[in-house]
Amino acid sequence: MTRSERRERILAAAAAVFAERGYDAAGMREVATRAGISTPVLYDHFPAKAQLYAGLLQSEVDRLQAAWGELPEPRDAEELFVATVDAIFGWIERNQQGWRMIFAEAPSDPEVAEVHRRGQARATEKLAELFAAVPLSTDLDRSRANELFAETYKSAVNAIAGWWWHNRDLPRAHVVALTTDLLWHGLRRLTLQEDP
């Protein structure tokens, strides 16, 4: 097994252990056992539990970013928006532990918190690209407006994902449609629609 293959095995084992026990109760020995390696080999890859968790968190952020990179070329901004929402909720559906790590758990360890902060910043930067074509009703600098939209979008999607976590009977397609109604079409347009 190569070093990178062993690292991936460790991260997979750590994800399972952290999911079962939480960060505080998870032990490095249990991660090593689950990965099928000795504890010294684990410490050779990750000298501390915080570094292991940070490595796992970084891996999850990379996977989420990769899901956005696989989107087809959109016809317009709305199609890009819907495809991005679907990609995010699809990733959440397949990676529940990753979603909890990135969005639902507040890290207290400074090293883990820094990885978390960088991941959030990358998400904001990526999302800001979605809003470049949205017209502004004020003379706010375009980049600051895009960042504001991205942070608002990120918070809203995370809140919807948290709600969906407790309402798993709702299919992803419905969650994507409702999220699009709220965040793309907007409340004003919804309130102007005639009753069916």
Automatic annotation (TrEMBL):
Q: Which protein, by its recorded name, is this?
A: AcrR family transcriptional regulator
Alphabetized SUPFAM superfamilies for the sequence: Homeodomain-like, Tetracyclin repressor-like, C-terminal domain
Q: Which PANTHER family match?
A: HTH-TYPE TRANSCRIPTIONAL REGULATOR PKSA, HTH-TYPE TRANSCRIPTIONAL REGULATOR RUTR
> Sorted alphabetically, which keywords does the UniProt record give?
DNA-binding
Q: Which residues bind DNA?
A: 27-46
InterPro entries, alphabetically?
Homeodomain-like_sf, HTH-type_TetR-like_transc_reg, HTH_TetR, Tet_transcr_reg_TetR-rel_C_sf
**Domain HTH tetR-type: start-end pairs:** 4-64
Instruction: Please report the organism this UniProt entry assigns to the protein.
Output: Amycolatopsis magusensis
